[in-house]
Amino acid sequence: MSRNHEIEAHLENLSSDLDPASDSLAIVLAAGHGKRIKSETSKMLHKIWGVPTVVRVANSAKRGLRSDNQIIVVGIKAKDVAETSGKETNRRFAFQAEQNGTGHAVKIALEAVPNGTYSGDIYIFPGDMGLLSVEAVQKFKAAYHNNPCDMMILTGVFEGAASDNYYGRVLRVPAEDINGKSSGDNFRKVIEIKEQKDILALEPKETYRVNYKSCTYGFTKEELVNLREFNTGVYVFKADKITTYINKLSTDNVQGELYLTDLIHIFNENDLTVKATEAVDNHTVLGFNVKSVLKEMESYARENVYEKLKDIITIVDQDDFFLADEVVDQIIELDKKKGPLDISIGKGVWIDRDVQLNKGIKIGNHAELSGRVLLDEGVRIQENVHVSAFPGQILKVGRNSEIFIGDIIKGNLEIGENCRIESSVNMTGSDEFPTRIGNNVRIKGTSYVFGSTIENDVRIEHSVLKCKQVKRVENTDGIVQAIRYFLPKAEGLEAIDDLGK
Q1: CA-CA distance, 45 to 35, in Å (whole number)?
Q2: What phi, psi does 413 have (nearest 5°)?
Q3: Which of 289, 326, 369, 452 supports an S-S bond with 468, CB 3.0-4.6 Å?
């Protein structure tokens, strides 16, 4: 089996049938590797706020369109991108073995539609648009439904220096053609999109001429460079129109590729209706080719989260924290049910998607929580603490318990209520040997606990407990017996010698 056939077979195993009855189908373009990102990792798998960009786009498209129908076009690192995206209902993967432009990628995607039977609307999204929100997709769909046309493009307005604008420029009909004739009702209609590389290839004093509805319009190179409205790479087409006209694309351009944007000119030539709508928030339609823009997008994502939560919980440093989207949604719902929450998140805190927070929780600077970690009300986690559960495990911390600076708590483990796990303590539980800590337990000093059960009210100091049962034993005066300096028998002593002076 050839390499390409092997990849195609793998993609078929990850694919499922499309729903021909759905009114919407999303095509996500995720075939490019992104040479300028300078990474062995596919551009599509770079994360924005903890989630690979292609996954973010696919999820937003699915929820925004209210349709599971998706075709994700993969190419370089095809298996990695497809496996990360995952198998879903009504999702297919299409393989673009050679990257020959966005038009070619969409042609490959359309070939994945069985017998060309789909008759709804086809939406196209770039896979690197990792800030694309559900709301942005919903608004685009609404704009399309409220302004019937054969093709609609989503545009943005570039706010930086023109020299930094690598997007395709949107050419609209000026007030007059080159002969001074009024454009009339055609004024501001979309003529075409001119890619940056094609603009830069023009001679400095060259006038770029283009025809629209029997009129000729001219743009200087400087005018084209300074156009602010840009193509985001998001489109919607009537299925029958794109399947008919996509075969008319040619490679007559600087890059020798099939540009999907050329369909605007082709549609106009064939008296089809092309419209454009502007994105409400430019940040939601950013794509990235270089690390600096990716970092900028991450900052926007953090800013969005802070804006959602700033009046619900305390975030000590708005520029240095991570709360997964699922945790953000959880906090918002928790506020509705149990607010006020009195939750505090320190500088540099990292809280992953499966962590469950609660009222009155305080998490100190640079603490990290990941896996299925369930925190009860009033839990306090101090600085530089690591709390984590492995896949399939649950770690619970009971009401009003506190974990001190620098501790590492992980695995299949439960801590009861009102416990104090002081500094220099590490605790682990496994599937075979879970760790269970009762209520009112205090563990301090340099201690390690693995696979053990500790009953209520016990105090442990400077001990190593491996697969032990620690009972609550009272002295004659009613005080619970403390455990101090318990160490297992040393092993490997024969490998240790004293160093002579």
Answers
A1: 13
A2: -150, 140
A3: 452
* Residue in this structure with the two tokens 């399947």, named with its chain if needed: 243
Which of the 8 DSSP states describes residue 333?
Answer: H
Q: Who contacts 163 (Cβ-Cβ below 8 Å, separation ≥6)? A: 225
Residue with tokens 């759905």: 22
Are 208 and 227 in contact by the 8 Å Cβ rule? The answer is: no
Burial class (CB in 10 A: 0-12, 13-18, 19+), 117: exposed
Q: List the one residue out of 295, 276, 41 whose CA is nearest residue 171.
A: 276
User: What pLDDT score was predicted for residue 2?
Assistant: 78
> β-strand 51-52 against 47-48: which pairing, if any?
antiparallel
Q: What does the radius of gyration of the chain's CA atoms come to, in whole angstroms?
A: 30
Query: CA nearest 344: which of 319, 377, 366, 316?
Result: 316
**Predicted pLDDT at 136:** 97
Q: Sign of the C-alpha dihedral, residues 308, 311, 316, 317?
A: positive
List strand residue ranges (DSSP E) for 147-258, in order. 151-157, 169-172, 190-194, 207-212, 215-220, 229-238
Tell how far CA 277 is from the center of its chain. Answer: 25
The encoded tokens of residue 39 equal 């990474």
**Pairing of the two strands 229-238 and 151-157:** antiparallel
Rounded distance between C-alpha atoms, residue 280 and residue 308, angstroms = 18
DSSP 145: H
Cα distance between residue 293 and residue 184, in whole Å: 40
**Two tokens, residue 289:** 């080719």
E strand or H helix that includes residue 37: none
What does the block give as tokens for 174? 């000026």
In this structure, which amino acid lies at residue 257?
A: E
Both tokens of 412, joined, read 């299949």
**Cβ–Cβ under 8 Å, residues 70 and 61:** yes
Which pLDDT belongs to residue 1?
57
Q: Residue 170: name the closest of 277, 87, 254 by CA.
A: 277
Contact between residue 315 and residue 306 where contact means Cβ atoms under 8 Å apart: yes
Question: Rounded to an integer, what distance in angstroms lies between the CA atom of residue 196 and that of residue 165?
Answer: 8
Q: What is the DSSP track for 415-473?
A: E-TT-EE-TTEEEEE-SSS-EEE-TT-EEESSEEEES-EE-TT-EEES-EEES-EE---
pLDDT along the chain (501 residues), means of 10: 87 95 97 86 96 98 98 96 97 95 96 83 98 97 97 95 90 96 96 93 93 94 96 97 95 88 95 96 92 95 98 98 98 97 99 98 99 99 99 98 99 99 98 99 98 98 98 92 94 90 61
Domains for the chain: give ranges and CATH numbers. 3-159+228-285 (3.90.550.10), 310-495 (2.160.10.10)
Residue type, 270: N
Q: Residue written as tokens 């925004």?
A: 64
Nearest to 120 by CA among 184, 79, 165, 66: 66
DSSP state of 373: E
Joined together, the tokens standing for residue 140 give 């685009």
